[in-house]
Structures are given as structure tokens and as C-alpha cells.
Design a protein that fits this description.
This protein is an alpha/beta fold. Among the domains are: 27-97, no CATH class; 105-345, Rossmann fold, CATH 3.40.50; 349-400; 821-942, Leucine-rich repeat, LRR (right-handed beta-alpha superhelix) (Alpha-Beta Horseshoe), CATH 3.80.10. Helices cover 40% and strands 13% of the residues. The strands form eight sheets. It has a ten-stranded parallel beta sheet with strand order 19-20-21-22-23-24-25-26-27-28, with helices on one face. Strands 11-16-12-15-14-13 form a six-stranded mixed beta sheet. The protein has a four-stranded mixed beta sheet with strand order 3-4-7-8. Helix 33 (850-861) links the parallel strand 25 (841-843) and strand 26. Helix 20 (545-559) runs antiparallel to helix 21, helix 30 (765-775) runs parallel beside helix 31 and helix 32 runs parallel beside helix 33 (850-861). The chain is globular. The chain starts with 26 loop residues before the first strand and ends with a strand. Residues 19-42 are annotated as: Disordered.
Length: 942
């Protein structure tokens, strides 16, 4: 046998479960290398001319080095024999030993099908309404507004300031993203390894993840992905910190059906996706500079496995999706993020869709939607799905009991009502009775509420939103109390990894509400030990205790870098109001007259605002004043927005949403609102769009508005108390897709616009027709209309004027420059000028009217009914002939026209002279005449 370049023969690749050890080493055929292993025997190799035989003996559990032949060409069969502790195994032929490709594929297919069934059961059904009723996800799932975000914005905004994300209109480049498309978008980016999705608590991140998984498992989306693993951080926390585990073993903890995966080339053959939900709930210590692992069988801590996947050292071809609340999103360095998305909750349209899905009775759903739309405070808070659910629950109850009277107007009122409803549901379920007396209801559940409130506060201090049995016991809660209704709609229990139990409040805001309730109860009981968290070294007397407590809580919230106690503070202030205490009688033995304390607290907040250097903090202070129902809120806002020189103060992009929220909640109506006075960027202006609901004049020209902005405007126009009389959306080039929504708003009986400017929005002819049809509704009070720079054409103008016929018309200003009009339209203008329409300004510049069109317009000017004062015909292809028609018209009716623009036409010297004569004659009202004379191809503008 001649020597040849190195050839590798692997003696044994993998044994079955009873023979798990891999045998490996390297020797040549020309020499025998003795290798021994722990508890193993010596092996010998016997070369021959046509075959090689290997003898190997090893005890069970032994680690040995098995020989591998190199440097020879092997002609003939290779016989491998080994002895195991369980008995001898004779010679095996390799084709018989190795699993066939078909067998391997069959096993893999069974594993994948079993996994899909398992994960469908895990994600396919959700709780909606009463706890015992599980509903299929597809029946209640409402599409959320998800957009691509900017990784640089992860860190710059407190979560409480994101509370009304409906007020955050999209960025210029933003378009809604279907959650099923995120991995496709990631591949297009070709940078970074993961998708990072942020969103505040309750905004719908987990629902989106479950919808993604369910659609994949049902074969509706992402068919290029072979297997998806959902790994919630709340469950990964249950794996002991000191336990070393491989990725394969970690997956077996969550998905035992994968036990047979070791018999396949699963990790090499399959396209895998890992979804890590709830980074903010993680208790892992993440270190992206640690030693990484590269093999699925290599053992390490769970945090190292996670970072190895994120960085791409472990399974680099796998998709990774991580969700997080904003505050924790910075735990992952931005260089590893290929796609950054943000869940922004429900748009206005999606809110209504949700209510109609959630409330089966269509009439009741319509009534609730109507009530919500008339309550500004509720409507703008309902972009959060969980708050939508809370609102639906509360309003259903209020509408049934008192026909919609006393609808909550603050967060605290809403959550008190929600608590009452949940206690009533608990009584009906476990005690088989309904308690209509609020005081008795709260009194009978006092002990349970007190314990939950203590738990909420103790865990909020630690920034925990997931708790375990030991946490419950520390607050005197016995887990077995579930049978008496401990786990209601506000408090949940899940069985997770190895049937371990994890507890959580249905939403972060519920935890913060109960935590605030606990602190107020401690104040009433004078429990100084519990209050020391806020009071620290202060020891105020009983009379001053509440004020000192509130002041210290305000200071504590201000010290937090990321708004840790902002919402808690608002609830604490709200509960301190005597009106809200009355709603809690039963839990409270009596109410406290806190008027003087509240007034002092308001003054303290205003004093802080005067010194606030951080806009985030100042905005949250507005929220606090709002919760205290202070009626001077609007004046405070205006004072804050004025700088020392009296000019508007610039507001950062991240604060625009919160600013609008406070403006809306103040209930005041602004005379005019120009977003560029506060923020000159397109992103900032878009976030300020919802201010159209609380102003008479909305000046949003050249603000980079989009289709979604049109929806916000349309909803405002449909509100019963919409104060808007002037709307300027000119020079927004991306709003054409929103024309139908805008038209729906204009058709609303509540729309009373007197001025509408849509100049240079680049509307096509079809969009113009859609818009014109909507103007009929407001034509009887429309005084100014500007459709310049849109493709109206003659047919669109004809439809516009027909829609305005037979109505009491008040139109005074009509601007239609650059509308692709011809002389065919000028007959209509002649009729308008001859009618009793009080038109005083007409701009038809840069349309191909020519002399024939000017003649028709001149005929209208001659009418004694004509009241026109300003006529602009710049760039209309008018020559000396047209100037003659115009001069004749002025001679017939000299009493009104005072400004005429014929610039960028070809009047010639004689044409100019005809009209200049009218300018110089005191008999005529003409004061301004604009024209251009061309001399040797040089334009002289007059």
C-alpha cells in the first residue's frame, strides 16, 4: 500500500444513549501509537494490505482516545469492533450503522410537527374578559401600529412620557410594519444579528410575538423558518444562576419534545429563530465582553448563551428577536442590533376595531366608542391595548349602572373603578353573590387588597414586575388563597418552567396604582417604618405628614433617571384628593380633608417647574398637576412654553408627545397652534399633530406629515366638540394616501372649517375628486379654500363648483394656481364673479388660461355683482390682447379690483400701458399692478 496525502477515517462518530462517549485520536498505519484513557484499556491497531481492524475496550463511563488512521489509502472494508459495559457489539457495516437520509428527515419532520403543536397550544389562546374564558388569539387580536425605530432613541425618553403613544405620529420614513415581516426586513438590512423591539408595558409586545408564532406554526407566514423557539426571560430567570447548561439542554428545559433532536443534524440543517420576550424582566447579568460559546453542546451560564447568540458566535445564521420595555433596551449594545422596531399601540381606527371585537353587543360597543370619543382624556389614553381593555371593562359597567354618568376623567378615578369591578367579579365567582354596595364590597376584600398593595410596593421599589412564591410569603400572602380569589383579573399566576409558578399584575400601571394605595394606607395608619423609604431622616408632625410625604415622593420621582416612580407619583397624588378617597370608603375608614395639603403640593410642583432644567421632569410635573385637577394648568403650560424673551421655548422631539397630551387634558382651546414655533423638525411637528383637537387654527404647513397624520386630523374633525375653524396642511407631500380619511373628517356633521389650505400636496386627479366631493358638507361656511399645486384639472373644478351649488356660499378666497386648468374652466369663473358669491380674492396663476380664458374672466369682472379685490393671473400665457380685455373690464366696473398680477406673461409695452393708466387714474381702485417686460430676453419685474 503506497503512502498518499492525509485521509481521515473517523472510527466512531457518536454512540447511542448507552454509549455516549466520542472516541478520537490520530495514528499512522506505519506505526502503532498506544493511547489510554481514564478507566479505559490500551488499544492496538493492526494494519494489513486490504483492511484495517481496530480493537478497543473501555469501561462504562470511560474517556478514551480512539485511533484514527491517516496517511494511507484504504482499499476494502473497514471493520470496527468495540465492547461496552452493556455487552459486546460485533462488527458493524457502516451503511447499516449510519442512519439513512430519509430516516433522519422523517425524525426531523416529526420533531418539527410536534414542536409546532406544542407552541400553538402555548400561544394560541389568551385570557379576555373573565379569567376562566380563554379565547383564540385570532378572535381578539387587533393589528398594532409597529414601526421601524431609531436605536439612538432607546435611551432618551422616560416610559411615562410614552404613555400616550397615540400622540406620537410617525416619522417621515415610518410605515407600519407587519410583525410577520420583521425577519425579512432584518435580512434586507445586512447589518447586526438581531431584531430589537421596544414598547411600554402593556402596549402589545407579547401579543405581537404570540401572533407571529401562531401564524408561523399554522403555516401562514415565515415558511422559510424551520423552527421558532419562544424563550421568555421571566422563565429563564428560574434556571439557577450557578448552573452551567448547553443551548441544547436549555431548549430541552422549555421543549422536552426536542429530546430526539440529537439524532439529527437539526442545528446545522434548520433555519432557526429564537424569540426572547421581556428583556426588562430579565435577572441575568449580561456581559458582552465575556468568553463566548460557539457550540450548541458547550455548557455555560444562561447569560453567556444569550450574549453568544446575540453577538452571533453561537448559531450565527439563526434569527434573534428580543422585546423589551424602553428602559432595558440599552442592555444590548446597538452595534449588534440589525433592526430596531417600536410597538406604538393602537391608532384611532384600531382602537375602535378593538372595542368592536371586545364587546359582542354591537349597540353597546357603538355607545361606548361614542362616549370615549367625547371624553378627550379617555380617548387619547386608549392607544395602549391593556388600557383599552380596562376602559372597556369600566365603561361597560358604568353604562349599565348609571347610563354613562360620572365617566372617570383621571387615571386615578379609572383605576379605582376598575378595582371595584374586579372585586365584584371575584365575589360573584367565589361567593356566588353580587355586592352592589361599594363600601361593603371594599370592606369584605380589604385584607386581600392590603396584601396585594404591599406586594406591589415592595416589588416596585426593586423594579420587579414578576414575582415568585417567596415574594408573596414575604407580604403575608399564602399561595393557596387563590381559591378565595387572590388571582383576579388584576393579579395573574402562570405555571412556567417545570411547573414553577410566577406571579404578576396584569399591567405595570395596576402595580403602580396598588403601590400608591399601599403608601397612602401607611400614611393613614401612621406606619412610619413603611414610610421611611420616602421620609428618610425626616420626622414631620402628624399635621404636616401628608404634605412632607407627597413632597418627598415628588423628589424621589425626580431623582429617578428613567421615570421609575413617575406613574406611581401621579396615583399617590390622585388618591390624596378627598373626592377619590370617597370612592375608596370601605378600604379607608374615613376621608381626609386634604385641600390645604394639596394646594401646598401644587405650589411646590410649580416651584420645581420654574427651576426645571430637564424637560422630561417638567412634563411629568404637568401630569401631576393634571391628576390633582388644578384648573390653572393651561396657564402653567403657557408660562413654561415662554422663554425669558417672551418667545416660545423649544421642545425636544421626545417631549412633543407629552406636551400635546397635557394640552389636551387641560381642556383649554388655543387660538392658534403652529408646531414649528416649538419644534422645527419634521419628527417633532408630526408628534404635535394631535393638537388639532384643542385649537381653532392649526397651522401645519410644511411639517412632513404622513398618511397617519391625516387619520389623526380626520378623527379630530369628527369630534363633537371640535373647535377647529382653520386648517393648513399645505406643502406636505406624503399625505395623498390619507385623502380618503381626511375626506371622511370633512364630511362629518361636526366639521365647521372656515379655512382649508391644501396647497402643493401633490394630489393626483383622483384624490382631488375625492376631496372635492367632501367639500360640499362645509361649503356653506367655507370662507377660504386653497388647492393650489394639485392636479385638479377642468373636470375637478367643474365638480367642485357643482358641489357648492344650491348652498349658501360664503367663499371669499379661492386659490387654484398650478392646478392644470385651461380656458375651459374660465366660463365657470365668469359665472362665479357674476353671482352673489362674496369672492374677494382669486388666484389662477400658472394655469394655461391664455387670452380666451382671460376674456371670459373679464366678462365676469364687468358684472355689478362682482366684489373681487385681488386677481392673480401670473404665468397664464396672457398677451397684449388679454390686457385689452382686462382694461375693458376695469373700465366697466372700476369700484373693487385693487390688485392685479399679470407677471410672467407677455403683455408687451402697449398692454402694460393700458393697465398702468388705470393704476394712475384715481377713479379706479387699482393700487397694485404686477407685470414683467422682456427686453432683449431680459425680464424686468414691476
Amino acid at each position: 500500500m503506497a503512502s498518499v496525502p492525509e485521509q481521515l477515517l473517523e472510527a466512531v462518530d457518536e454512540l447511542d444513549k448507552n454509549k455516549p462517549k466520542r472516541l478520537k485520536s490520530a495514528v499512522t498505519a506505519d506505526e502503532v501509537e498506544k493511547a489510554d484513557g481514564k478507566d479505559g484499556s490500551i488499544q492496538t491497531i493492526r494494519p494489513s494490505q486490504t483492511s484495517v481492524s481496530v480493537d478497543l475496550n473501555a469501561k462504562a463511563g470511560a474517556t478514551v482516545n480512539a485511533p484514527v488512521l491517516t496517511g494511507n489509502v484504504i482499499q476494502g472494508p473497514v471493520i470496527i469492533s468495540f465492547n461496552s459495559a452493556t455487552g459486546a457489539v460485533g462488527p458493524q457495516n457502516p451503511p447499516e450503522r449510519q442512519m439513512s437520509q430519509k430516516q433522519e428527515d422523517d425524525i426531523l419532520q416529526k420533531i418539527l410537527e410536534s414542536h409546532k403543536d406544542h407552541i400553538k397550544a402555548k400561544t394560541g389562546r389568551v385570557f379576555e374578559g373573565k379569567k376562566e374564558n380563554k379565547t383564540h388569539l385570532s378572535k381578539v387580536y387587533t393589528e398594532l401600529f409597529i414601526t421601524e425605530g431609531d436605536i439612538t432613541e432607546v435611551y432618551d425618553e422616560h416610559e411615562v412620557l410614552k404613555f400616550d403613544r397615540a400622540l406620537k405620529t410617525p416619522k417621515f420614513e415610518d410605515t407600519p410594519i407587519d410583525c410577520n415581516d420583521i425577519f425579512s426586513l432584518l435580512k434586507q438590512k445586512e447589518e447586526g444579528n438581531i431584531v430589537l423591539t421596544k414598547g411600554i408595558a402593556g402596549i402589545g409586545k407579547t401579543f405581537s410575538v404570540h401572533k407571529f408564532i401562531l401564524d408561523w406554526a399554522e403555516g401562514k407566514a415565515n415558511r422559510d423558518v424551520d423552527c421558532v423557539f419562544l424563550l421568555p426571560f421571566r422563565e429563564m430567570n428560574l434556571i439557577k444562576d450557578d448552573k452551567e447548561i448547553s443551548l441544547h439542554e436549555l431548549l430541552l428545559e422549555f421543549y422536552p419534545d426536542l429530546n430526539d433532536v440529537e439524532n439529527t443534524k437539526f442545528y446545522k440543517k434548520c433555519k432557526l429563530a429564537f424569540i426572547f420576550d421581556g428583556l426588562d424582566e430579565s435577572r441575568l447579568e449580561l456581559d458582552f465582553d465575556c468568553k463566548l460559546v460557539k457550540c450548541v453542546n458547550a455548557r455555560s451560564s444562561v447569560d453567556v448563551l444569550f450574549t453568544s447568540l446575540v453577538i452571533g458566535k453561537l448559531l450565527p445564521s439563526a434569527f434573534i428577536w428580543v422585546t423589551s420595555r424602553p428602559a432595558a433596551a440599552n442592555l444590548i449594545p446597538p452595534e449588534y442590533v440589525g433592526l430596531f422596531t417600536e410597538v406604538r399601540g393602537f391608532t384611532d381606527q384600531q382602537k375602535e376595531e378593538y372595542f368592536r371585537k371586545r364587546i359582542v353587543d354591537e349597540a353597546q360597543a357603538s355607545k361606548i366608542i361614542s362616549h370615549i370619543r367625547t371624553s378627550r382624556s379617555l380617548y387619547i389614553m386608549c392607544h395602549i391595548p391593556v388600557f383599552c381593555w380596562i376602559t372597556a371593562t369600566v365603561l361597560q359597567d358604568i353604562l349599565v349602572k348609571n347610563d354613562g354618568q360620572d365617566i372617570p376623567s383621571t387615571l386615578t378615578e379609572m383605576y379605582i373603578h376598575f378595582l371595584l369591578i374586579q372585586m365584584n367579579m371575584k365575589n360573584q365567582k367565589y361567593e356566588k353573590k353580587q355586592e352592589r354596595d361599594r363600601t361593603k364590597l371594599l370592606s369584605s376584600n380589604k385584607d386581600m387588597i392590603f396584601k396585594l398593595a404591599k406586594l406591589a410596593f415592595e416589588q416596585l421599589k426593586e423594579d420587579n414586575i414578576m414575582f415568585y412564591e417567596k415574594d408573596l410569603k414575604a407580604c403575608g400572602i399564602n399561595e393557596s388563597e387563590e381559591s378565595t380569589g387572590l388571582c383576579t383579573e388584576i393579579f395573574k399566576k402562570d405555571s412556567v418552567l417545570h411547573e414553577m409558578k410566577v406571579y404578576y399584575f396584569i399591567h405595570l400601571s395596576v402595580q403602580e396604582f396598588l403601590a400608591a394605595l399601599h403608601v397612602f394606607l401607611c400614611y393613614l395608619k401612621q406606619d412610619m417604618e413603611e414610610l421611611i423609604f420616602f421620609l428618610e431622616n425626616s420626622r414631620p408632625n402628624k399635621k404636616e405628614l401628608l404634605y412632607v410625604l407627597l413632597r418627598k415622593a415628588i423628589d424621589k420621582a425626580k431623582e429617578s433617571d428613567r421615570g421609575h416612580f413617575d406613574l406611581f407619583l401621579r396615583f399617590l397624588l390622585g388618591i390624596s384628593l378627598e373626592s377619590n378617597q370617597k370612592l375608596l370608603i370601605g378600604l379607608l375608614d374615613e376621608t381626609l380633608n386634604s385641600k390645604n395639603c394639596i394646594n401646598k403640593t401644587i405650589q411646590y410642583i410649580k416651584q420645581l417647574q420654574n427651576n426645571d432644567k430637564c424637560p422630561n421632569k417638567s412634563i411629568n410635573h404637568f401630569f401631576c398637576i393634571l391628576e390633582l385637577q388644578d384648573r390653572t394648568l393651561y396657564q402653567q403650560i403657557m408660562k413654561y412654553l415662554r422663554s425669558e424673551n417672551g418667545q416660545p421655548k423649544a421642545v425636544s422631539n421626545s417631549n412633543c408627545s407629552a406636551l400635546v397630551y397635557v394640552l389636551l387634558m387641560s381642556g383649554e382651546v388655543l387660538d392658534d397652534f403652529d408646531p414649528k414655533m416649538f419644534n422645527k423638525t419634521y419628527a417633532g411637528c408630526r408628534r404635535l399633530v394631535p393638537a388639532v383637537r384643542c385649537c381653532r387654527k392649526a397651522l401645519f404647513s410644511d411639517c412632513g406629515l404622513t398618511q397617519q397624520c391625516c387619520e389623526t386630523v380626520a378623527v379630530a374633525l369628527q369630534l363633537e366638540d371640535c373647535p377647529l375653524s382653520e386648517l393648513d396642511l399645505s406643502h406636505n407631500y406624503s399625505i395623498e394616501p390619507g385623502v380618503k380619511m381626511l375626506s371622511a373628517g370633512l364630511k362629518s356633521p361636526h366639521c365647521h372649517l372656515e379655512t382649508l389650505r391644501l396647497a402643493c400636496c401633490h394630489f393626483g386627479q383622483e384624490s382631488c375628486v375625492e376631496l372635492v366631493s367632501a367639500l360640499k358638507n362645509i361649503s356653506h361656511h367655507l370662507r377660504e379654500l386653497d388647492l393650489s399645486g394639485n392636479d385638479l384639472q377642468d373636470s375637478g373644478l367643474h365638480k367642485l363648483l357643482n358641489e357648492m351649488e344650491n348652498t349658501e356660499r360664503k367663499l371669499q378666497v379661492l386659490r387654484l394656481s398650478w392646478c392644470n386648468l385651461t380656458s375651459k374652466s374660465c366660463g365657470h369663473f365668469s359665472l362665479i364673479l357674476s353671482s352673489d358669491l362674496p369672492l374677494t380674492e382669486l388666484d389662477l396663476s400658472n394655469n394655461d388660461l391664455q387670452n380666451s380664458g382671460v376674456k371670459l374672466i373679464s366678462d365676469g369682472l364687468k358684472s355689478p355683482n362682482c366684489q373681487l379685490e385681488i386677481l392673480r393671473l401670473s404665468g397664464c400665457m396672457v398677451t397684449e390682447e388679454g390686457c385689452g380685455y382686462m382694461s375693458s373690464a376695469l373700465s366697466s366696473n372700476p369700484s373693487h379690483l385693487r390688485e392685479l398680477d399679470l407677471s410672467y406673461n407677455h403683455p408687451g409695452p402697449s398692454g402694460v400701458q393700458l393697465l398702468k393708466h388705470k393704476l394712475e387714474d384715481p377713479e379706479y381702485k387699482l393700487q397694485i399692478f404686477k407685470y414683467v417686460l422682456w427686453v432683449n430676453e431680459v425680464a424686468f419685474i414691476f
